[in-house]
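Memo to structure team: turn this sequence into structure tokens by end of day. - J.P.
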Amino acid sequence: MKHLSARKALRRPFRFPAARAFAIGIAACALAAPALGQAQDDRMTPIAAPAQPDAIELGTGALPGATAKESWHRQYGSRFARNVTVATLTPFLPDPAKASGAAVVVAPGGGFRTLSMDNEGYDVARALAARGVAAFVLKYRLRQTPADMAGFERSMQEMFSGVARTPLPAPASAATDLAPQLADSTAAFRLIRARAAQWHVDPDRIGMIGFSAGAMLTMATTLSATEAKPAFIGNIYGPLGSMTVPQDAPPMFAAIAADDPLFGNRDFKLIDDWRAAHRPVEFHLYEQGGHGFGMYPKATTSTGWFDAFVRWIDMHGMLKRAR
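Reply from structure team:
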């Protein structure tokens, strides 16, 4: 499972829900859900940073004021990165014989303090590439956490016990609050479009999918007036509170579990807002699945979200190969 949410405003009408969610969301770490049949080892075990030979630096610079270096740990059999100070994009390209021309930027979640690189990043990208979709895992810059694992775990324990929670600051624009992350997502779209011919990608069929905090970044990227406008978006267990939907909003696929401890008991007005704006939207509310189900195989119907997402983008003509 994972992270939590934030209340932010992109423009004034764009608000992420609830002050408490904001305080938790900024601080939360990955609470990964174990795979079916896998030992439920929730310990965070430090690991060496894996080789990332295909990762491309996005050129957005180092995180201002950062002192802690990037580090990785394993939990529930998956790898997580934290203290990311330099953003990268890792391509997962389909077999040319299967390539559809569609592409997706994949934004893992982790409360903007860590990134679920396997469950919500690499595993998603590999599955998309197998369906003929070029996928690009965005390792965006994160808020700093204590460099040592013990300090990081203490900070998380304090956050969940309420010790480290700070009062909600005055509402600010997402362009300010998420400035490094928005710069990273914009640079990702710019790079894919610049190399579209090399990667056999149609510049008009580049979408974005995000998980929890990554879903928040996906929505911020979509609703900010930037060059990074996705052709379609996936909001996977992100907050679904009301916001102003622009007339040119892309088709949206949303999925969440009713027993999600973070957002399952909140309203889903974003779906109504999308419909009121006469924009295409598909919404899956699963009975069970918790938060952070991602690509973990679980004995719940939430495991079917990926197949539904691929069928949905196909329905919108995104997987039609150019003749």
